[in-house]
Fold:
Amino acid sequence: MKVVVFMVVTFLMVGCQSGNKKQNNTGEAPPQIVLSEETLNISGMHCDMCVASIEKGVNEVEGVQFVKANLDDSTAVVRFDKNKTNLNEISRAVEKRGYSVIQMQ
Structure:
């Protein structure tokens, strides 16, 4: 009986895992990621909730891989895939949260 249960569980685990694999049948290579890291100067940050709000808003932009806002110097470092987004979209995400991007470096 234990052997039958073991076989059924093993079959289910293998069957479930094979469904998670995506296959690329087109023969094309997946698009390359082109990373860029930029520092944004942001006006209007005055507390830790501001930092959290900016980080949350920027993280919601498709292609953003990392964001870290800094209250001390009113900046945010953003790492993103240039194939999926750009600084204008990231700036709009900051502005939707009620802050302004002063200068993009």
